[in-house]
Amino acid sequence: MLHSIFWNTLRPGSSADRPEGELAAAIDEHLGSFEAFAAQLSTATKGVQGSGWGVLAWEPLSQRLLVEQVYDHNGNVGQGSTPILVFDAWEHAYYLQYKNVRPDYVDQLWKLVNWADVTCRFDAARAAGNPILIAP
Ligand SMILES: [Fe+2]
């Protein structure tokens, strides 16, 4: 699932270099600012011990965005959270071009994010509502 999101999110030549509209407002409200969010997701991705992922996720119970650090493919995933944007931190994702310099690879990933795709995932996650508090 994370790889499916990853490949669809990274598209060279994306039109915008940062999110707009309600996603941008949610990032500002929940994570401080785009710059603070980018620093947090970069740090989470660069700091994975061994293999894993950096993830921006929608958490439906608190109705907010949060950054997660996932070990391997599923360890430490927030229960019920929906991945919105994921960065692959497995060595196979960057070794051919960046050798063991994962931070350089992560810094370059930001240039490839397709924010329209991320926004679609954000909108769908929010539209799903809160599965725990559904009225009878
Ligand atoms: Fe991968």
Can you characterise this structure?
- The protein is of the alpha+beta class.
- The protein has a single domain (2-127), classed as 3-Layer(bab) Sandwich (minor pseudopilin epsh fold).
- Helix content is 42%, strand content 17%.
- It is built from 6 helices and 3 strands.
- It has a 3-stranded antiparallel β-sheet.
- The radius of gyration is 15 Å and the shape is globular.
- Bound molecules: fe (ii) ion.
- Fe (ii) ion binds next to loops.
- The site of fe (ii) ion (FE2) has 5 residues, from loops.
Salient structural properties:
single chain; 136 residues; alpha+beta; minor pseudopilin epsh fold; 3-stranded antiparallel β-sheet; globular; binds fe (ii) ion; EC 1.15.1.1
